[in-house]
Automatic annotation (TrEMBL):
Gene3D superfamilies: SRCR-like domain. InterPro entries: SRCR (IPR001190), SRCR-like_dom_sf (IPR036772). It holds the Pfam family SRCR. One of its GO terms (cellular component) is membrane. Keywords: Disulfide bond, Glycoprotein, Receptor, Repeat, Signal. This is SRCR domain-containing protein. It comes from Patiria miniata. Disulfide bonds join 57-121, 70-131, 101-111, 251-315, 264-325, 295-305. PROSITE patterns: PROKAR_LIPOPROTEIN, SRCR_1, SRCR_2.
Amino acid sequence: MRSGSSFSVAFAILAFFAFGCNFQVAALGIGVRLVGGSDSMEGRVEVFWNGAWGTVCDDLWDLRDATVICRELGFREAYAAPIGAAFGEGTVDIVLDDVRCTGNEETVFDCPARSLGVHDCVHSEDAGVRCTGDRPVIIICPSNQTIDSDSNQNFATVNLPGPAASYHSSLGRLEITIDVDGSTRRVNDEVRLSIANSPHVLQFNASDANNTATCSMQISVLGIGVRLVGGSDSMEGRVEVFWNSAWGTVCDDDWDLQDATVICRELGYGEAYAAPHEAAFGRGAGDILLDEVRCTGNEETVFDCTAIRGSGHDCSHYEDAGVRCSKLLMLTTD
């Protein structure tokens, strides 16, 4: 008979504390794995004991023993109990021998067997199983997250979220489909999120052949950005900047072509040919975020320019600054 009860008790205590502390335990089937099969439901049986994985000898190995292994891994019955190292020979210790399960045990360590580590076998006798059924997919939806935008963009990019999953299926891989709100744009396996319309809610389905779950998560976008509002086309308008999670305007005190050129280049255009004052493109409605901007004209972003930021201004919205940009000319040589 075996002396593996302390092993089962130790793992039971570990599982109790893991769940009691609200850890997410993804592994089902304590101390058992299948190795060398063509899919997750078949393979050489290996068990974890004394800090290492080991194999099971095929002496007395039958469908009842194999079924306990399959159920322990979350599958159904075993339909085969291959012997003779059908899935290749292991290279670790042989841990179990002369296993004699009734088929109703919760774990193979509850089955009668020789003492753990005691055997008269070699690895050419390693036992295997072939299971029927499918382990259920356990889908854990991701939590809300915050991402930063690039300093010169109105959008930030986030990879499509995938759920954390205990996934053990031979019936297909985890498939993700996503539905995003109207203020986002999808590019391949990424989603571009508008800074102006943050936060965003992403909803998506995760499924395999037999299981489906719906996840929803909120993504907040933080960062700095620049946009033009109220112009007749995309190259002119009232300057608005994104700061402290909100859009606001720029006061026209000290506003000149050098400042306007930094804005135009930041947006991917050429130089500015005008720097209109006095809310030429209409008055903004948000906070005034920059005042007395003094750029040299070489900065990569207006936020690199000297300025008064936040509430330290002495302006009102009839002083909102604007720009008119020229196209960026692409010179080519033959």
